[in-house]
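Dear Dr. H.,

I hope your travels went smoothly. While you were away I took the liberty of generating a structure for the chain from your last submission, since the lab meeting agenda had it listed for discussion. I wanted you to have the full record in hand beforehand rather than looking at slides cold. The sequence, exactly as received, is reproduced here:
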Amino acid sequence: MTQVLGATSTTDDVLLWTDLHGKRVLVTGGIRGYWRLRRARALAAHGAQVVGAARDLEKAEIATVAGAKAAAANGGSFKLVALDLASLKSVRACADELLARGEAFDVVIPMRSQATPFGHTVDGFGDAVGTNHLGHLYWSIALLR
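The corresponding predicted structure, in token form, is as follows:
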């Protein structure tokens, strides 16, 4: 049977016939916002070893409790790392931490913010450009070292 995917397809629909056991997935913004959290949880629940990057680890821990339980029940995992895309210093520190672990990622999913408030990053860029574009670009390049 062929499944047709479209605008109303969920992450679970897309992953229905995908085996993610043993795959490592890195997600930015994995805990902020309902749909992002659902995507990250679905990946982990399908067996992936998900690493979610979050600005506020305390809030992230609270938001991911249920996802971590569902992941463990299906052979996956859900861990968190600190990453503030509005700070190039934080971006570099996160990349350095991940590289120091020596664990490669099979998939990297940079999720941008839909509603970035007007303001400036600590490096002086506009928030939308700084977090959604420059932060992700610098982070991706730093991970490729």
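Two observations you may find useful: The longest strand covers residues 49-54. The CA atoms of residues 49 and 77 lie 5 Å apart.

With kind regards,
E. W.
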